[in-house]
Structure formats: structure tokens, C-alpha cells
Amino acid sequence: MRFHGALTAFVFTLAALMAEPVLAAVYTFTDANGVIHFTNVPSDPRYAGMARAPYRAPAYNPVKTSSEYRAASNRYAPLVQKAAREHSIDQALLQAMIATESGFDPRAVSRKGAVGLMQLMPETARRYGVRNPYDPADNIRGGAKYLRDLMRKFNNDLSLTLAAYNAGEDAIVQYGNRIPPYRETLDYVPRVLTLYREYQRNVR
Fold first, then answer.
1. Predicted confidence band at 201 (pLDDT cuts at 50, 70, 90)?
2. Which residues are catalytic?
3. What is d(CA 38, CA 190) in angstroms, rounded to the nearest whole number?
4. Four-CA torsion 126, 165, 187, 61, nearest 10 degrees
5. Measured between alpha carbons, how far is 164 from 146 in angstroms, rounded to an integer?
6. Is there a contact between 136 and 119 (Cβ–Cβ < 8 Å)?
7. So what CATH class is 2-202?
8. Tens-digit pLDDT profile for residues 77-101
9. DSSP H/E element including 191
10. What dihedral do alpha carbons 85, 110, 200, 41 form, nearest 10°?
């Protein structure tokens, strides 16, 4: 299927970029309508340079073949569909987040201690009643509930919601309800949005 080929190529490209530190600058600005723009080649004086910092590769081992990626994605599709339906979240968004957060590895643990498919921090897992963050169903359910709360808090602004999921709610507030200038977050938001668009076009 063409989608899986394109998506796998995208994932492979990300994996290659993550293999060693990336030092290219990322630029961003928020326009009058509140839309956040990202680029590595600024063509508008409103872009402000973000500090350069090496990207830290995730703790999990990403899938290495298209068949592995399809199998991993399909394996959790029923759980994703159930959580999306129960918490009124687009299934494609949850799929994109899981792909970005853990590469569909339910045993993934980040350097900061985030666990499972949706990389829940221990306090977040407790907050949403996740008893076993390594259990795919429990992890996806807790992550979906947290995502739903973030969407409500940030008035369904998807960019801010994703930034809050990655950097924490307090960081968004600290920077005046804008995406904080953290390299990881500036990478994370457009990455999820890109995969989200791919899933929207092809998963349903």
C-alpha cells in the first residue's frame, strides 16, 4: 500500500536524523490569527531563532521494516479505536501520537521515566488511574483521557495541546499560552501533525 510505503519512508528519515545530534536551527513565530509557523529556512522577519541543541534519540528501538511497522500499528488499532470513541478523540491523532511517542513499543521507557505506548509519566499514570502503564489498553486509555483534558484546557488548539503533552501544561502557561522554545517540543509538534495528516488520509 502506498501509504505504508510513504509513512515508513518518513519514519526511516526521522530515524536517520535521530541517529546523531541535529544542530540545525529551528525558527518559529505566531501570526495574528494565533497560527504557529515553523521553518528551518526563515523567509519572514517575524521568525525568531530558537537556541541550537542536539536532539536526543528516544529510548525505544523503532521498527526497522515496513512489515514490522504495519504489524505494530495494526496490532493496537482496536484499542486505539475504543479509546478514541470513548474520549471523543480522532483515532488518527492517537495513532500519530503513539507512533511518535513510542514507535508502537509498549515496553518503551524514556530517560525521564515516561512509560509505554503513549509515554505516560508516573504522576500522569496515577492521575488517570493507570494501574499498569506497560499494558497497552491501560496506557492508551490513560493517554487518551489526558489528551482530552489538555484539549479542553487549551480550547482545542491542537498545537498547544501537543506541546503540553510533550513539555507539560505548566510550560505552556509559563510562555504565555504559546509553544515553549524547547528543541524537543519544536520537533515534536510538527512531527505528530505530519503523521496525523497521513493517518487521516489513509487509515480510515
1. confident
2. 101
3. 8
4. 30
5. 10
6. no
7. mainly alpha
8. 999 999 999 999 999 999 999 999 9
9. helix 183-202
10. 150
